[in-house]
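Reminder to self: tokens first, then the designed residues, so the page reads top to bottom the way the pipeline ran.
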């Protein structure tokens, strides 16, 4: 990154990666706060009832910017 910061990426099972997240980016590119209700929605409705039901394996990717 131009300002000397470092962007770190994390990938793994959604229920684990979400524990390290405090926000998410919506479809319009806006940052939203990640609350417990949204976490449950992602894991239960999207991952379990949509992808796992169709035998898809899921990997979630998250990132954070670190100041050097």
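Designed residues (68 positions):
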């Amino acid at each position: 990154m131009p300002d000397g910061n470092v962007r770190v990426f994390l990938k793994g099972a959604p229920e684990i990666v979400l524990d390290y997240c405090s926000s998410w980016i919506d479809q319009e590119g806006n940052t939203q706060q990640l609350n417990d209700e949204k976490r449950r929605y992602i894991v239960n409705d999207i991952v379990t009832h949509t992808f796992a039901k169709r035998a898809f394996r899921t990997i979630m990717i998250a990132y954070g910017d670190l100041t050097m």
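The chain has one domain: 6-62.
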